[in-house]
Amino acid sequence: MLRIFALTVLVFSSTCAFSQTHPETVYPQNYFRDPLDIPIKLAANFGELRENHFHMGLDIRTEGRTNLPVHAAADGWIARVKIEPEGFGQAIYINHPNGYTTVYAHLNEFFPGLAAYVKREQYKQESWSVFLDIPKGLFKVKKGDLIAHSGNTGGSQGPHLHFEIRRTSDDTNLNPMLFGFPIPDQVAPVIQRLAIYNGSASIYEQSPILIPVKDAAGSFSIPLTVGWPSVRFGISAFDQQSGSTNPNGIFEAILFDHDERILSFQMDNINYDQTRNINAHVDYKTRAQGGPYIQQLFELSGYNPSIYQTPGGNGVIDISDGRNHSIRIEVKDGHGNTSMLRFKISFKQNDGATSSTTPGGNEFYPGMLGTCESDDCSFYVGEKALYDSVHLKYTRIAPASPSSISALHSIGEEYIPLQDSFMVRIKPTRELSEEERLKVLIKREVRKKFEVRSPQWQGGWASAGFRGFGVFELVIDNEAPQIIPVKFNDGANLQQATELKILVKDNTDSYKNFRAELDGKWLRFTNDKGKYFIYRFDERCPRGPHTLKITVEDEAGNVANKVIGFRR
Q1: How many helices (H) and strands (E) does the chain have?
Q2: pLDDT tens-digit profile of 25-78?
Q3: What percent of the chain has pLDDT over 90?
Q4: Are the CB atoms for 235 and 252 separated by under 8 Å?
Q5: What is the pairing mode between strands 76-83 and 461-466?
Q6: How far apart are CA 414 and CA 14, in angstroms?
Q7: Would you say 293 and 282 are in contact if contact means Cβ atoms under 8 Å apart?
């Protein structure tokens, strides 16, 4: 509850660095060049907040265009190539003799020699999606060599180049902004809001007090006391570069109580194995319920290893003494431009209602192997699944659809993140034949969106792992996928066409195998962004009559086949 008490907030911006809190790592300056031929303008920077992951490099704008030349950032050799429908799309990894690796993603075309090599390997593996290790001496490059053209492939939402620098020895991503690229920045970060939390309640069983930060006059006051003897803080903030209005992520934040450093974090290096732990760094519940991103200035007990340094504890501040606590938060970018937020806060006993709530259900906590069992459903939460303690509510609901062969089982809440999968076991409402079991899927639904898993069977129970809570049920899927040729059909004359395009649909929005054969031999169809399967005519399809066979299998093992004759 808000009460009348002075919480004085002062906001300062500066282009000078304040206290140094993390050991400084010196990275080679100007060793790497701009991978494009145009000035670097960022659409996203390192450590920027994304759904279920940190952004792991720089998104460099390509002026809204594709097919800009992409150059090797330094001498080295091409070590790996990845092609996938989502994620990086088409990507090149270059190892450099100084112990770093650069990554170039969302590419359109590789340079001809590499493109021919990759195509041969795809036909050997009979797979368009590949992750190839390239022999060290095969493709040496010099700084500035053309390696590809920029694109919009994979998980890209618009034309740009995703660029990373990694430590080769352990594949850890490093912040490219620390390597001396010509990106002018004299603009301090912007702090948008302060979040205040009960220091003793689960992060998932409370809602923060949110205070907008308005820096028009440099300072302002808000009357406030809190009824909690301990508190935690979070902030919403963003950074910008000189000449750009694009909001990017912040580099560093530091929390002080009476000038004692309590906690800090710095976006210096992140490993892909740990990037999902962003869900322990941001207030996941607030974001999942449609609120803003809030970066927490406290460490959850299940966040290990975390990005925080905690010389003064885990970020929980004891204010039970009833005195004013002078809090300071510094927010920095990689160039040392700094903004500061200052305020005073105190505790008052019996200050009315708080923002924390304790729902029903059994309590689970990090490090606990927890179970919940009923007559026809059980679930198991592993030691590394949760970031904070929480009560998980379970509800059994009558089945709702004809395809359902179990009750609906509501487990937990969608706003509770998991860093590891939890196991769901469900018993069907009737005996199933072996043939029926092969067609059973476990379905998870959240807000009318769903995913399915093919389960394992044991003792009449179906089980599968999921990385999110929701409503679960068993369904039988006997419906094969649909194979839909786009703008051509059996017997078509395609002498003027440049490509074959296939659309695949399935009632579960999930299929696991696609295979195309031309005259009995595997044919490479691309599948960028998981949409259309496309084959562009090349030497594999000479002039004359041909037979195309498409085979698709869905998650339940239903198989569809389509044979199409055409003339090229």
Answers
A1: 4, 47
A2: 789 999 999 999 999 999 999 999 999 999 999 999 999 999 999 999 999 999
A3: 86
A4: no
A5: unpaired
A6: 40
A7: yes
Last residue of one domain, picked from the residues 129, 151, 179: 179
Q: What is the pLDDT of residue 23?
A: 62
Same-domain pairing of 510 and 402: no
Residue where one domain finishes, among candidates 179, 212, 243:
179
Distance of CA 431 to the CA centre of its chain: 40
Say which CATH number the domain at 452 has: 2.60.220.30
Residue that is written with structure tokens 């910008």 in the block: 240
Task: Point out which residues pair with 318 in neighbouring strands.
Answer: 230
Is residue 239 packed enough to be buried (19+ CB in 10 Å), middle (13-18) or exposed (0-12)? buried
Q: Do 193 and 69 share a structural domain?
A: no
Q: Model confidence over 446-480: pLDDT tens digits?
A: 998 999 999 999 999 999 999 999 999 999 999 99
| Mean pLDDT along residues 425-436 | 95
For residue 196, what are the domain limits?
6-20+185-345
Do 506 and 469 share a structural domain? no
Q: How far is CA 181 from the centre of its chain?
A: 25
Structure tokens belonging to residue 494: 């395609």
The Cα–Cα gap between 40 and 518 comes to 44
Q: Which of 143, 147, 144 is nearest to 96 (CA)?
A: 143
Per-residue pLDDT tens digits for 481-509: 999 999 999 999 999 999 999 999 999 98
> Cβ distance 197 to 231 under 8 Å?
yes
Residues 102 and 174 in one domain: yes
How many domains does one find in the chain? 4
On whether both 457 and 501 belong to a single domain, the answer is no
Question: Does 166 fall in a domain?
Answer: yes
Q: Are 313 and 262 spatial neighbours (Cβ–Cβ below 8 Å)?
A: yes
Contacts within 8 Å (CB) and 24+ apart, 488-496: 488/564, 488/566, 489/564, 490/563, 490/564, 490/565, 490/566, 491/565, 491/566, 492/564, 492/566, 492/567, 493/566, 493/567, 494/566, 494/567, 494/568, 495/543, 495/567, 495/568
Q: What is the pLDDT of residues 149-196, one digit of tens each?
A: 999 999 999 999 999 999 999 999 999 999 999 999 999 999 999 999
116-145: average pLDDT: 97
At 320-372, the pLDDT tens digits run 999 999 999 999 999 999 999 999 999 998 754 455 566 788 999 999 999 99
Cis bond upstream, residue 305 (ω within 30): yes
Specify if 33 maps to a domain: no
Q: What is the pTM of this model?
A: 0.93
Three-class secondary structure of residue 290 per DSSP:
coil
DSSP three-state, residue 29: coil
How many residues in the chain?
Answer: 568
CATH number of 506's domain? 2.60.40.1220
